[in-house]
Amino acid sequence: AAAPKVAVVGAGVIGLSTALCITETWPSCSVTVLSDQFSPNTTSDVAAGMLIPHTYPGTPIHVQKQWFKETFSYLFAISNSAEASEAGIHLISGWQVFKNTPKEELPFWSDVVLGFRPMSEAELQKFPHHLFGQAFTTLKCDCPPYLLWLEKRLKAAGTQMYTRKVSDLWDLHSEYNIIVNCAGLGAHHLVRDEKLFPVRGQVLKVHAPWVKHFIRDGDGLTYIYPGIHRVTLGGTREKDSWSLSPDPGTTKDIFDRCCSLEPSLQEAQDIKVKVGLRPSRWCVRLEREVLSQGRVQLPVVHNYGHGAGGFSVHRGTAKEAARLVGECIAALQGSSSRAKL
Amino acid sequence: GSAGLVEPPLSCFPCRLWNKETFDHLLGQLGLPAAKEMGLFLISGYNLFKQPVPDPSWKNVVLGFRTLTPEELELFPGYSYGWFHTALLLECRRYLPWLTARLMQRGVKFFHKKVESFQEVSGDGVDVVINCTGVRAGELQPDPELQPGRGQVIRVLAPWVKHFIITHDMESGLYNSPYVIPGSEFTVLGGVNQHGNWSEENSAQDHKTIWESCCQLLPALQNAEIVLEGSGLRPGRPRVRLERETLRHGHFQGEVIHNYGHGGFGITSHWGCAMAAARLFGSILRERKAAGPLQPRL
């Protein structure tokens, strides 16, 4: 039987990392990435790429923790190698501060990040409006570098990548045996998933190289995430907003909130404004589906709906998606053997 | 030439008070608009050891001091123990101009000249000389305890490095073990401290040692672009010389306050030492006042 031809739809962090996992796990497959956008124009490029998980209400916590752990270990190894700067991965320490004591004192990921502990009184003095905090060290994935690094590894593995808008998965069935749907927010139209909705986030990317720590308000709305060259200041969480245009009032509001956490940001230079629409869902859709039209079948693996937590779990969900692709391959080979009888 | 990390060496007494005073003072400046102009910011990082050591005396002066977890130590093969804490970084290439500007605002005058003797600057109307001549203080007054601790550093572009890493080797001695200290623009790589070496030329051997040991410590440095390299002489002394002296030489009598010999921790202790020197100055003023109107000096 010919090597299965796999098409991955989507070239954000989920699409590219899933494609890479498939090439690593099933080297005999041919993998092609199809997307209407590639870096630097994906949703992932706007994200800060901080490894601080988002909690999905509909996914068991132990599963989310496993995804996060796998992602953290994978990136930790890269951050401590000569590839770190090219891949855009680096360690960063900082603080998560709360104006009100959080419901859970220990988030599920506290033993995956490094050095997690409550902040001391002396440390909290830096945040006069907050009464409780957590200090830890985690990883950051800078985009575009990380996506470009994934693309480079994919090319080295023989993966083809094409700019192409896919409006219907059936358009691909004659060329490909298995489709992997990493279309992010695009899945709303592509597979008519009404449970998928945008959560609009506006951010500022500024030049403030003296800021060496992340600072995040526990409410998730205000954050300061230093990257390699720029600091990402955020943000907003506007449910069901599809607008990609930056809003000047929001820009000022974000800047003021961040300066309140870190006054030295008043001196930040070269402020760039970006907008991303988080592909949000009650739970990540990570499952197999067999589409059928008459007697024709099209195996699909869905891996989308990561919302605010894509970077934090991307490697873990990519590995699971690759495993599901394996199930599709086995099913195809099973049915083709039956066909030979 | 220094990296600007405000962190005391492991054993230093009576520097403890000066170091605490300096840290607290700078911490208070952090939230002010001048902080960026001063070159002042918070930075966290790692101190690494090859065997367990007692906690340092300054553990409660700095922020968030703790020992490293086993997972963190995995980052640093060859080191089995360590600390994590948040310290301050004060970049001298910004701090010195900032201080200069403030002094000028207050009417302080600057003269660029080589001073050959205390007498030379003790002429008309000068009541007190404050001697902050650092490593070359011995040229003004012999001090066999003052010895250069030669250091060499490589400045690289590595903005993905957000932590300082300081290694300790009890055998090779302080600052004679690799360290990585990120600044606002460049990252400083170092790790030599050569007692008695007056050379201010860069040594190819030291370059190799520093580059290889820092890249081994932090593999992510391997692709960093080298921008600058330099060497400097730490003004080493068993203890900082911070004291008054009345100098008499023939007809000349003058008060000198010595404030030199800070070794590799000048930035760490500078404010506390400056305040101590200022207090010594204050006591001179009080004595003069008590003695009545100024007597003409013969």
- Enumerate the spans of chain B where pLDDT stays under 50 for 5 or more consecutive residues: none
- Major sheet summary line of chain A: 9 strands, mixed
Q: What percent strand of chain B? A: 25-35%
What is the fold named in CATH at topology level of chain A?
Rossmann fold
The gross shape of chain B turns out to be: globular
Q: Using the coordinates above, name the CATH class of the domain at 113-145 and 239-290 in chain B.
A: Alpha Beta
- Any guess at the CATH architecture of chain A? 3-Layer(aba) Sandwich
Relevant CATH superfamily of chain A: NAD(P)-binding Rossmann-like Domain
In whole angstroms, the N-to-C terminal distance of chain B is: 43 Å
Keywords (chain B): Cell projection, Cytoplasm, FAD, Flavoprotein, Oxidoreductase, Peroxisome, Phosphoprotein, S-nitrosylation, Secreted, Synapse
Protein name (chain B): D-amino-acid oxidase
Binding site for D-dopa (chain B): 168, 179, 234, 264
Subcellular location (chain B): Cytoplasm, Cytosol; Peroxisome matrix; Presynaptic active zone; Secreted
Give your account of this protein's structure.
The complex is a heterodimer of chains A (341) and B (298). Chain A contains nine helices and 15 strands. Chain A has 341 residues and is an alpha/beta fold. In chain A, α1 runs parallel beside α6 and α1 crosses α9. The longest helix of chain A is centred in the last third of the chain and has 31 residues, at 310-340. Chain A is elongated. Chain B has helices at 15-29, 34-38, 70-73, 92-105, 118-121, 204-217, 266-290; strands at 5-6, 40-49, 63-67, 81-90, 128-131, 147-157, 164-167, 179-182, 187-190, 194-195, 225-236, 241-249, 252-260. In chain B, strands 1, 2, 3, 4, 6, 7, 8, 9, 10 and 11 form a ten-stranded mixed β-sheet that branches. In chain B, strands 5-13-12 form a three-stranded mixed β-sheet. The longest helix of chain B has 25 residues, at 266-290. The interface between A and B is medium-sized, with 35 and 35 residues.
